[in-house]
Structure formats: C-alpha cells, structure tokens
Amino acid sequence: MADKSIRPSVVIVKEGKILVLKSKYSSGEFYLLPGGKIENMETTVETAIREVKEETNYDISIKKLLYLQEWIDKIRAKNVMYMVFLGEINSGSETHLNDPWLKEGKIEGIEWKSVEELKDEEFHPKAILPMLEEDIKNEFKNDAIYIDPEIS
C-alpha cells in the first residue's frame, strides 16, 4: 500500500525572490518551499502557518491557494499531494532554529532565490516554476492551478 500524504507549503516573495529551504535527505540535496506534514486535527492552512514559523521563525498569513500537484513515487510507494499557498510575512526575524528537522540534519539553511536561480537547482516541486514566474509578474492575480501529476 502506498504512503499517502498532503504537504502544505508556502510561497513567500520578497523583492522578486522566493523563500526556500536548502534541505539534505538521503536522496540528496535540494531546495523546498517551507511546509510539511499535517499534524492531528490540523487544517492545511494551520499546517502551512506552523511549518513556516518552525522553519523560518516568520509569522505569516495565508493569502490564497496557488497550486495543487500530485507526486507519485513508484519506487518508494509514495503519493504526495502538494498544496502550495501564497503567504505574506507579518512579523518575525529569519532563523531556522526552531525546526525539529534540524536535529536530524534535514534543513541546512534558508535562502532567497529567484525563479531563474531555482531553474538551475534541484527544487521540488519543480513543475510550479513556470507558473510561479508568471504569477510573480502578475502579482498573483490568477486562480489556483492543478498541475499534472509527476510520476517517477
């Protein structure tokens, strides 16, 4: 049976750059949006807000849903639904010292990167980059988009 999960994550843009986490897992190093697993009795929006706080120390508000995309990993029998929200920083100063993943060495740091820079990096979910580039230019006026599943 496949491991099924929902991963709420957040796009935060400042001066044309996106807040990303540099992560290191057994499968390699890559960049991710802040986000993570839903805890018991938590909504996807609550998860997104909590994860950003834990991973960056920013207090945010969620403005809208941007993208939905499924990722199906046949090798590891894993099915993940990415829910990508647009967030806005309300307060806080950047740090990633509160995240429990630090103890396991999963998060190496926080960076601000342009979409162009992320195109040349290992970034997940990579399929959002073309839409994200357009949405930044259009100030996120488009409706939420369902992106075809990525199957590996």
Automatic annotation (TrEMBL):
Residues 1-134 form the Nudix hydrolase domain. The keyword Phosphoprotein does not apply. Pfam families: NUDIX. Coiled coil: none annotated. PANTHER family: GDP-MANNOSE MANNOSYL HYDROLASE (PTHR43046), MUTT_NUDIX FAMILY PROTEIN (PTHR43046:SF14). It comes from the Bacteria. Transmembrane segments: none annotated. Keywords: Hydrolase. This is NUDIX hydrolase. Its cofactor is Mg(2+). InterPro entries: NUDIX_hydrolase-like_dom_sf, NUDIX_hydrolase_CS, NUDIX_hydrolase_dom. One of its GO terms (molecular function) is hydrolase activity.
